[in-house]
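Sample A.
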Amino acid sequence: MSFRTIGFVAGAALALTACGGRAAQDSTAPIRALLSADALMLVSFDANADLSVSRDEAEAGFAREFTRADADNNGALSPIEFSNWSNLVLGGSQIGPYRLDFDRNVDNVITREEFDTEMRARFSQYDGDENGVLSRTEFVRLVGQARPPAPRREPTPQMGQRR
């Protein structure tokens, strides 16, 4: 095989790779759905397996999760307890909800009241039709913004013009 043929094949492979990269960022590509860590937790509160989470099921779930997180049973969560709970239940402390979402007064203690207040707010955010019940479709967020941003094109100087 000649160097010219090898060069042609390598160039064609690079061109196909570049096209594939653009296709993945195409604005007509299907929008993906995303379930966040808090949504996955809320889904787990479906005690009667009816594929929805009522406010009562959510309240029971909030109590269970606070009890799970409160390792020393003192009625409050320390930063370490919250981090351990977050890693166990939410899949990691880097993906949210974050400790300061719960600890609004930033005293390094999350009380049961603070925990419940944040969890109720999250429940309400998902309850799009405000009927007090979360359906599966309410958990799904369409995330068109999750697509990688299109590369910003810098203006190129016209030939013969100075910068």
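Sample B.
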Amino acid sequence: MHISKKPLLIGLIFISFLVFLFFISFESKKNNINHDKVFFEPNKEANLSEINFYDIEGNQFFLENFKGKVLLINLWATWCLPCKIEMPALDRLQKFIGDEKFEVIAIAVEKTNILKIQEFYEEIDIENLKIYHDSSTKSGLYSKAKGLPLTILMDHEGREVGRRDGPWEWDDNRVIEIIESYKQLSIN
């Protein structure tokens, strides 16, 4: 049986072209979804009050310990490449606008030793973020994380006002404007 190569080649080119168009269309829609808004709707099923973590001295914290401040909570891990990429922006955000009304709380959610997190901070020159660690990894469950990184914005009353799955450029002007507006609400 002899199959002509020309129709087969034309068919493969046509199918390849359709697949190419599909991926371009999908990527364009995905980018619009991801970049239209910085934060998306809070997860009403999350139980953020249960999140607890430790600092490098072994002190335990709950998010309630920070009530009165606007918080940008970032759940991350040292093995997570997107987390590693966004950490410098979180560090800069803390440096630029962190004060008594706002703090970035970056919690490493992994079973590693907290000293590994300290080494990670030194390796990528993180200077303004405190080292926080949840070795139980339950923060991911309580926050209803779909993956890491997960970033949650909380107002000064401890309510989740938005979240974002995946990395972001956290020292972007739009982010700073949003956080500053919540800081202003905490004054009133």
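B remarks: Residues 48-187 form a domain with the Glutaredoxin fold (CATH 3.40.30.10). Confidence is low (pLDDT under 50) at residues 25-35.
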